[in-house]
Each structure stands twice: as C-alpha cells, then as structure tokens.
C-alpha cells in the first residue's frame, strides 16, 4: 500500500506572487484606459491654482474694470501671466502699467467657455516694470535659507613639531593652568611638555601597554591614565608617582573622563562597560552596562544626563549617575562612534563616525543637523573651543576644521609624516585645544606631536569664505 507524502505548505513568497498575478489578471486591461474628461472639474482646479499661486500678487494692484477675471478668459492653447504696459495693450490706461493680467496666447473659443487646454502658466516681466514685479524664480531666491551663514575664520597652520615618543601617540590632556600638557604613547610612557617652548619636562613610566586615555584634575594635583593593560592609574604630580590603581576592567581601557564637580572617574573599554570610580576609596560605584561593543568615547556633565558614552555598536547612550541606568539611546549613526566633543559653553555636543559628523542638543539629545560635508574616513579624535572652531582628525591624516554653528567646513589639511615613517602612519589619534582655545595639539601615528595656531596674516581677501547653503533641507 502506497503511503501518501505530506503536502508541504506553500511559502509566503509563493503566495504573495499568486496574489499579485491574480490582481494583474483582473485589473491590467483597464490600465491603459483614461477616465472621461470633465470640463467642470478642470475649470475648478485651474481657478483654485491661479488663486492659490498668484492671488496675493494680484490683490496688491488694481485691475481695470474691462479686464475679466482669470477664470473667464478662455484661450485655446496655453495662457501666460504677463506684466503689460501701454505698449502691449492700447486700451489700458497709463496708470495701470504694472498690473497682472491673463493674456491668452490665442483667441478664446467663445464667450462663457471656461476650459483651458494649456498645462502651465508663467510670469513674464514687461519692459520698464518696477523691482517689486519679479519672476517666480526671483521670489524663491529671496526666501531666507534655514542654515545660518558662517562667519569668516582664519585658517590654522602648523608651527611646531615635537618628537620624543618611540611609538604611536594615542592621548593628550592639558593642565588647567595651561602651563603644560601630557601625552600618552604606545611606547608605554607618559611625557609632560611645556606649552610655550615645547620642551620635555618629565617622563612617567608604569604602564605595560599603550596608553589610550589621559585626564588632569582641576580640583587636585592628580593625573589619571588608562591603557590597554586593563589598568587605570592615579598619579600624584607632586611626587611624580602612582598612588592609586583602579582594578575591575576585563579588557583594555580606551577612554577616560572626570566629573567636573564630584570626585569620580569614568572609564570605558573593550569589555563594553563604562565604569564609575570613587577617586579616593578606589571603589567602583557603578558599572554602566548596556552597550554591545567597545566603549571608546565618554564625557561628563554636571547636570542630567551626567554621563554620555559612544560605542563601536554605533549608539550613543545617556546615563543617570544617581541610579546607574540608561536615560536615552541615540541610534542616528550607522557606524562606530569613536569620538565625541562637548561644546564648552553651549548645551550641545557633536559625535563623529565614519558615516557622518552629527550635532545633538542637550539634555534630551535632539538631533540638530549633520555637518555640511563628509570626511569619508575613520575619525578618531575631535575637539571644539569656545570660539566655535571644531577640528576632526582621521585615520588617513586628514584634519578638517569646522564652523560649529553652521557646520561649514572652512579648512582641510593633510598632515605630513616625518622622514623615515610610512605613508600609512599619517593617522591622527588624539586632538585637544588648550585652555584659551588658541593652540591645538594633535597626536599622530608617526610618533610626533604637532602644534597648530591660527594664521595671523590671513585676511578675508587672501582666504575668502567659499560657502554655499545646502539644497537638502532634510539635514535639519
């Protein structure tokens, strides 16, 4: 006896194709048939269009009594709105030289017939018309752009190159007194440099892997460092030695930040967790877990949200420090958020990814706009000063300078690798402005530290502002 095979259920794709075929068989013959013309509906549509587009213009001028309404004048082909003068119509009075009337391109079919056979109307300025009678294109150009126009900014130039590290320079931080700055490198050392002269003041050793994060306290004589060796260290700058270590990370520590008002430290790393430490007791207060990948950027605020983190999982999270829980998650980026920069004065911040650079509002995280061009590289570092100059550094050695308010990219620089280095060692890993915002320090893959300042000889004439407002309003 033969056994019946089980009937396999049809897939959803096959069922949708069957339904589509049935619909085509039913309605395909009527696709090429047009509905019968309705002169009355055409008349109403054209009347409404004329009143909606040109009603406000026509109401500002007085029409002569012998000119019929626009709907009653019926040309056979197309119609044009013309600004007629006495030379175009001998019946018009001299006082009605700048009037908007409907001029038929051919004779009407008959009185009372309201059908139009044309498809469009245009405004044609007559000779000798005043400035207020403009074409539609000119009127559209007078509409102000929603984008704020950027102010002119002087270009930045490199004025000093500092050599001394034996590996990639991965991190930088400035002293609150603006007398020195420190850099951390893949050679496992921290070096302290004089801001004015660029001379080496001190070298600190203690890490056994590259140093990816540095921060200098404004309240104490402490400096904090974090590296790939899973260690977070507190340095006493009066004794120049490590006085505390914070243990808890399960992998390398990539970023580090200090709270401006409270004695706590925040670190994020490859274990996808941002950890909150008490500076003095070395205790871990919170483990802010929620990211799916490496936490590579963090900054803190005195108000809610007190912690903002960016991750390789392409999200930005806002955290409440009191409860250690997520307040909001921003999913605007499509790729890793490797760098963030908070404006020192305004309540907003920018985040950088390989897809774009975006600005967000604080405290709620509303999206403001994208920057007006794309750097098209992996952006490792960004910084902004009080004057509204933002700089971003990429893996390919490109440095782009932006106007913070408008998002206009006013300068693009390409770093030059040192002799003996490979062209692929042109990456920029860290950037920071000094306290005044007049100096910029970049840490690069060719083992050098470069210092930048504005070109004092530049003028708007020598370096004009080439700005075009964007056409894509959807950026807002």
Notes on the protein architecture:
This is Protein pleiotropic regulatory locus 1. The chain is mainly β and 476 residues long. It folds into 2 domains: 40-141, no CATH class; 156-455, Methylamine Dehydrogenase, Chain H (7 Propeller), CATH 2.130.10. The model is unreliable at 62-143 (pLDDT under 50). It has a 4-stranded antiparallel sheet with strand order 4-31-30-29, with no helix packed on it. A 4-stranded antiparallel sheet has the order 5-6-7-8, with no helix packed on it. It has helices at 12-27, 39-58, 136-141, and strands spanning 79-84, 99-104, 123-124, 156-163, 169-174, 180-185, 189-194, 200-205, 211-216, 222-227, 232-236, 241-246, 253-258, 264-269, 273-278, 284-289, 295-300, 307-311, 316-320, 325-330, 339-342, 348-352, 357-361, 367-370, 379-384, 389-394, 398-403, 409-414, 428-433, 440-444, 448-454. The protein is built from 3 helices and 31 strands.
Structure summary:
Belongs to the WD repeat PRL1/PRL2 family. With about 475 residues, the chain is mostly beta strands.
How do the strands and helices of this protein lay out in sequence?
Elements (H helix, E strand, L loop, with lengths): L11 H16 L11 H20 L20 E6 L14 E6 L18 E2 L11 H6 L14 E8 L5 E6 L5 E6 L3 E6 L5 E6 L5 E6 L5 E6 L4 E5 L4 E6 L6 E6 L5 E6 L3 E6 L5 E6 L5 E6 L6 E5 L4 E5 L4 E6 L8 E4 L5 E5 L4 E5 L5 E4 L8 E6 L4 E6 L3 E6 L5 E6 L13 E6 L6 E5 L3 E7 L22
Parallel strand pairs: 1-3
Antiparallel strand pairs: 1-2, 4-31, 5-6, 6-7, 7-8, 9-10, 10-11, 11-12, 13-14, 14-15, 15-16, 17-18, 18-19, 19-20, 21-22, 22-23, 23-24, 25-26, 26-27, 27-28, 29-30, 30-31
């Amino acid at each position: 006896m033969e056994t019946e095979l089980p009937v396999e259920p049809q897939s959803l794709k096959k069922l949708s194709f069957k339904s589509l075929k049935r619909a085509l068989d039913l309605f395909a013959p009527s696709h090429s048939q047009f509905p019968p013309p309705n002169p009355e509906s055409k008349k109403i549509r054209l009347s409404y269009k004329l009143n909606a587009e040109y009603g406000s213009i026509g109401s500002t001028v007085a029409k002569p009594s012998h000119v019929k309404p626009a709907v009653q004048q019926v040309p056979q082909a197309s119609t044009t709105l013309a600004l007629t003068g006495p030379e175009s119509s001998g019946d018009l009075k001299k006082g009605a030289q700048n009037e908007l009337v409907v001029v038929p391109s051919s004779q009407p079919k008959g009185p009372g017939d309201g059908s139009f056979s044309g498809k469009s109307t245009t405004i044609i300025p007559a000779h000798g018309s005043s400035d207020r009678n403009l074409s539609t294109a000119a009127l559209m150009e007078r509409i102000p752009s929603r984008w704020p126009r950027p102010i002119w900014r002087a270009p930045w130039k490199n004025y000093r190159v500092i050599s001394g590290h034996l590996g990639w320079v991965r991190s930088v931080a400035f002293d609150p007194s603006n007398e020195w700055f420190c850099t951390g490198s893949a050679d496992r050392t921290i070096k302290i440099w004089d801001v004015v002269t660029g001379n080496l003041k001190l070298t600190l050793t203690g890490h056994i892997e590259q140093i990816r994060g540095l921060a200098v306290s404004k309240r104490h004589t402490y400096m904090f460092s974090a590296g790939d060796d899973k260690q977070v260290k507190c340095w006493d700058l009066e004794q120049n030695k490590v006085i505390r270590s914070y243990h808890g990370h399960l992998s390398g520590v990539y970023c580090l930040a200090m709270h401006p008002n409270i004695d706590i430290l925040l670190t994020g790393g490859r274990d996808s967790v941002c950890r909150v430490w008490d500076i003095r007791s070395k205790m871990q207060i919170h483990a802010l877990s929620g990211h799916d990948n490496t936490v590579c950027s963090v900054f803190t605020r005195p108000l809610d949200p007190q912690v903002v983190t960016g991750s390789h999982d392409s999200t930005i999270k806002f955290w409440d420090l009191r409860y250690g829980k997520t307040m909001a998650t921003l999913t605007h980026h499509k790729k890793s958020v490797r760098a963030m920069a908070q404006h020192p004065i305004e309540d907003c911040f920018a985040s950088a990814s390989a897809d774009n650079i975006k600005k967000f509002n604080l405290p709620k995280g509303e999206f403001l706009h994208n920057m007006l061009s794309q750097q098209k590289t992996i952006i490792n570092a960004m910084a902004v000063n009080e004057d509204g100059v933002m700089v971003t550094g990429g893996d390919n050695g490109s440095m782009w300078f932006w106007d913070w308010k408008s998002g206009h990219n006013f300068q693009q620089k390409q770093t030059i690798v040192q002799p003996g280095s490979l062209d692929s060692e042109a990456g920029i890993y860290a950037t920071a402005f000094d306290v005044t915002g007049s100096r910029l320090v970049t840490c690069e893959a060719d083992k050098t530290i470069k210092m930048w300042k504005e070109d004092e000889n530049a003028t708007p004439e020598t370096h004009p502002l080439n700005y075009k407002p964007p056409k894509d309003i959807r950026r807002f």
